[in-house]
Design goal:
Elements (H helix, E strand, L loop, with lengths): L3 E4 L2 E4 L4 E7 L8 E7 L6 E6 L5 E3 L7 E6 L4 E6 L8 E8 L3 E2 L3 E6 L1
Parallel strand pairs: 2-11
Antiparallel strand pairs: 1-3, 3-8, 4-5, 4-9, 5-6, 7-8, 9-10, 9-11
């Protein structure tokens, strides 16, 4: 059974940092393109950052220079380090594994002003 389990969300003040983790089941992980997405209330779910199995990265313009995606294939885990957080970063954050389109259940990030 495929599982993606996010953790690390919470409440933080503007300017603070959080590190999200997404633990995956299965040896498929090392071949996956892993992405972090976020969805605010009433908004679409948008890509935040993506990391291919080859190490290429992609970031949304709004998070460039503040967020960093990384992975540890030995632990089947992808991370999202979020620094200099802003209230507009408040959303539910999801991880996704492609090309299989596996999704995690999401973790809430709330940034207070």
């Amino acid at each position: 059974q495929v599982q993606l389990v996010e953790s690390g969300g919470g409440l933080v003040q503007a300017g603070g940092s959080l590190k999200l983790s997404c633990a995956a089941s299965g040896s498929w992980f090392r071949l996956a393109t892993m992405g972090w997405y976020r969805q605010a209330p009433g908004e679409a779910r948008d890509l935040v950052a993506e990391l291919t199995f080859g190490g290429s990265t992609k970031y949304a313009d709004s998070v460039k220079g503040r967020f960093t995606i990384s992975r540890d294939n030995a632990k089947n885990t992808v991370y999202l380090q979020m620094n200099s957080l802003k209230p507009e970063d408040t959303a539910v954050y999801y991880c996704k594994a492609d090309p299989w389109r596996y999704w995690g259940q999401g973790t809430q990030v709330t940034v207070s002003s």
